[in-house]
Amino acid sequence: MKQSYQSITWQDDHLVILDQTQLPHREIYSEIHTIGQVWDAIKKMKVRGAPAIGIAAAYGLYLGVRELDAKNFTSFNVEIDRWIEYLESSRPTAVNLSWALQRIKTTVFANKDKDLEEIKEVILNTAKTIHDEDKRTCKAIGENGAGLVEKKARILTHCNTGGLATGAYGTALSVILHAWEKDQEIQVWVDETRPLLQGARLTTWELQKAEIPFRLITDSMAGHLMKTGKVDMVIVGADRVTANGDTANKIGTYSLAVLASENDIPFYVALPLSTFDINTESGDEIEIEERDGEEVTHINGSPMAPKKTEAYNLAFDITPGKYITGFITEEGIVKPDFKKNIKKILG
Ligand code: MRU
Predict the structure, then answer these.
(1) Do 158 and 55 fall into the same domain?
(2) 8 CA distance to ligand 1 centroid (A)?
């Protein structure tokens, strides 16, 4: 399976990202040379999707520390903590961001006796490893999930979970790509995903590139399609899954899960193991990002609502584990009892 674009590329000494705010009409690759530019790209969602922001943050940490002129490991380490805190402040909900940064921190400690210039190289190499691993992980998620897709299935998906949101292929979208390789009669329903339209702008763009037919629907149509027997399966991604299986994902996911349950439709969440956060007991403890109300009151900078309209704009919601049929991971499918089986798959 080939993918003709990369959301993130490391080139010589800098990062190149495909600016997702410009898609689908303009394919603009932007160079990123500083940690501040990485923070800004994540905040403004030029790079987005849980695994992709983890990868970008990992490279971002390197861009921050490479200019450091610390006297010793202790002061170097203080600066690293400062940069980690800074990067983590860009978007709070997806655990992959702090997962990637903590992984680098652990590697730094394991190499603390090395020369500081060597430790900087270790940081860059760990970022590259996280990036490469994610590509392999997403392929395995797709292969594992494709086995769950029935012949001629009509699959509904939400937000964007493709190669744009990851190192390559995606999570839920990787399942769709791999299922399509086996059966060209599957059908895909793409939720537009208000307010930033990741479904309408990005998932459609990726499916067109893969030459997979789909139909775009408004978010509010999903329930009617389920009730009238036009959906066989729902597959979404995740930004953070807690120890009990509660799942933070793009706003609107919870409504889809309840509707799927009401209509006896399997509801799967596809994710890398790095999206599990077993240090958090339940979804009640997850910080949900609130974004600027203008994303709701405006489209492409033009107002839709009367002046001074105040919007409430939460980017994610929490789907209780009880609505989830299973988690599709690179290591296989996790079925209930989630509390027990999530722990088991993480080893
Ligand atoms: O706000 P976004 O566009 O970053 O939200 C993305 C999602 O909710 C995805 O479903 C999730 O990150 C999984 S992507 C593989």
Answers:
(1) no
(2) 15
The per-residue pLDDT of the chain, averaged, comes to 97
- The verdict on 158 and 80 lying in the same domain is no
Q: Which domain holds residue 211?
A: 144-345
Chain position carrying tokens 């922001």: 53
Number of domain units in the chain: 2
Residue (of 45, 43, 44, 15) closest to 30 by Cα position:
15
| Beta carbon of 247 within 6 Å of any ligand 1 atom | no
Does 249 contact ligand 1 (Cβ within 6 A)? yes
pLDDT tens for 211-229 read: 999 999 999 999 999 999 9
Query: What separation, in Å, do the N-terminal and C-terminal C-alpha atoms of the chain show?
Result: 30
**Are 98 and 241 found together in one domain?**
no
212 Cβ closer than 6 Å to some ligand 1 atom: no
Atom of ligand 1 nearest to the CA of 170: 15
Give the residue carrying structure tokens 């001074």.
308
Whether the per-residue pLDDT at 2 is higher than 90: the answer is no
Whether residues 184 and 135 share a domain: the answer is: no
Taking only the tens place, the pLDDT of each residue in 155-166 is 999 999 999 999
CATH number for 242: 3.40.50.10470
> Residue 292 catalytic?
no
Q: Give the model's pLDDT for residue 307.
A: 96
Tell me how far apart the alpha carbons of residues 198 and 202 are, in angstroms, rounded to a whole number.
5
pLDDT at residue 334 greater than cutoff 90: yes
